[in-house]
Amino acid sequence: MAGRARGGAPRRCPSCGANVIKQLVGDRVALKVVADVTPLTPEQQAEVRGPNRLIWCLRPSSGYAPDRLFWVEPWHPPDCRTGAHVADHLCPPAAPTTLF
Ligand SMILES: [Zn+2]
Ligand SMILES: [Zn+2]
Predict the structure, then answer these.
(1) 65 CA → ligand 1 middle, Å
(2) Which of 61, 78, 79, 86 shows the smallest number of beta carbons within 10 Å?
(3) Contact criterion met (CB below 8 Å) for 31 and 24
(4) What pTM did the predictor assign?
């Protein structure tokens, strides 16, 4: 059993150190995606989704293929059973000492 290193292996965000998934998504135009590894509930997806933040369907590896991110189409169910839904990674705001 070798070759687990490609594709969906979590990496670290160089800015905030969070675990992220880096992957090229798309066939003709590859989009460089950096996504969080934490699956979101349908409510959370509706909350974070926006023009600058997309939701991805992370499908588990099958056989030799690594975990893959898939584009979530408008008709894609937010509670689909195929994969875990994750969002584009956004670094948390700096200065964690600031409380309000
Ligand atoms: Zn899905
Ligand atoms: Zn980050």
Answers:
(1) 17
(2) 79
(3) yes
(4) 0.78
The Å distance, Cα 96 to ligand 1 centre, comes to: 32
Ligand having the closest approach to the CA of 15: 2
- Provide the token pair at 68: 């893959």
What is the full DSSP assignment across 30-63? -EEEEEESS---HHHHHHH-BTTB-EEEEEPP-T
Beta strands 31-36; 55-59: pairing state: unpaired
Counting ligands in written order, the one closest to the CA of 79 is 1
B/e letters for 14-26, b = 16+ CB within 10 Å, e = fewer, are: eeeebebbbbebe
Identify any residues that bridge with 56 across adjacent strands, giving them in sequence order: 71, 86
Q: Which residue has the tokens 């989704």?
A: 49
Give the model confidence (pLDDT) of 62-91 as tens digits: 777 778 899 888 889 989 988 999 999 999
14 CA to middle of ligand 2, Å?
Answer: 7
